[in-house]
From TrEMBL:
Keyword Transferase: yes
Taxonomic source organism: Inconstantimicrobium mannanitabidum
Keywords: Aminotransferase, Transferase
Protein name: Aminotransferase DegT
Domain of life: Bacteria
Amino acid sequence: MNEFIPLSVPNLKGNELKYVTEAVEAEWVSTGGAYIDRFEKDIASYLKVNSAVACQSGTAALHLSLIQSEVESGDEVIVPTLTFIAAVNPVKYCGAYPIFMDCDDSLTMDTAKLREFCENNCNFNYGKLINKKTGRTIKAVVVVHVFGNLANMSEIMKIAKKYNLKVVEDATEALGSYYTEGPYKGMFAGTIGDFGAYSFNGNKIITTGGGGMLVAKSDEDLNKVKYLSTQAKDDLLYYIHDEVGYNYRMTNLQAALGTAQLEKLEEFIKVKKENYFLYKELLGSIDGVKILDFNENVRSNYWFYSLLLDSTKLRRDELIKELSKNKIQTRPIWGLIHEQKPYKESETYRIKKALYYHDTVVNIPCSSNLSTEEVCRVAKSIKNILLK
Ligand SMILES: *Cc1c(COP(=O)(O)O)cnc(C)c1O
């Protein structure tokens, strides 16, 4: 009997139970405790940065990044449309307006269009980028490293510098991905822009159940963000608060899980990479389908695999349905954000490729505990359905 093969599930075979038990036995279960410090230090050292701040979620990390980027009510932020909606919602939390950008063939932000938009649709005066159409100031750009691929950061950083934009890297799907060539060789996703946000949600490459992490170019920014994430306490004895803070700190229990998970990260990436190339080999010979590549100048974390069907929507949905009958879970790419109810009135700029990839990409099982046999079963099922 065939077992169910899920899309992406946690892999908890390391020191997770041991460390969580330790945290419980020490009776440090809340937002203080040794594992929080340890997890932050371990992540910082892995990413080769000075420090990191553990948060309640990736979304919280993104929200804090925008606050510290001085995104305020009535400002605008450039965002991708082809991504998970949590990359964009924090713009609304700040009372700001998103402007939706297209993706390129790597599924990350189209930097040619980004540059074009800044050049043609905006004025740059006194260090401020003003949207000609709305008269509002554009403060930042949120760049998502989709599925573990890396966006074109060298272009993005040039554009951001020219137009005085803060760069928030949404690296929630890309922990472990780094450049192997170019100006940022050796640098990890999330460590190039002004802020980098990571997520440890259940489906991410490592998990704390729910949780996130934030890094920043400036230590001052990072300290401020930590202060804001812990209720903005200015006096610990008398409870004096000079600003409105947030309850965004990670708990010691989550951090204990995360510490154990991080020990396994490189192992997970190795398995994911092997399975990715096995899928490529097994599906390579079928006409009209393709596993999307990761960028060449990148060591990806191979988080999610994208099967591209250069055909109709119907075939995509048919494939998903048929695979599900074979107890294989797959999923279409996210609903485009500019088409979602809260964002229907938002500004968009020449969105084209996102529409195409939205209709043609299916994510296939990619868990780090997926066996070779399971990859073969998925590939065989896909083949049978498509060649039917
Ligand atoms: C998972 C994810 C987030 C949100 O992370 P949470 O930890 O679930 O809040 C944000 N952006 C993208 C692109 C994601 O995939």
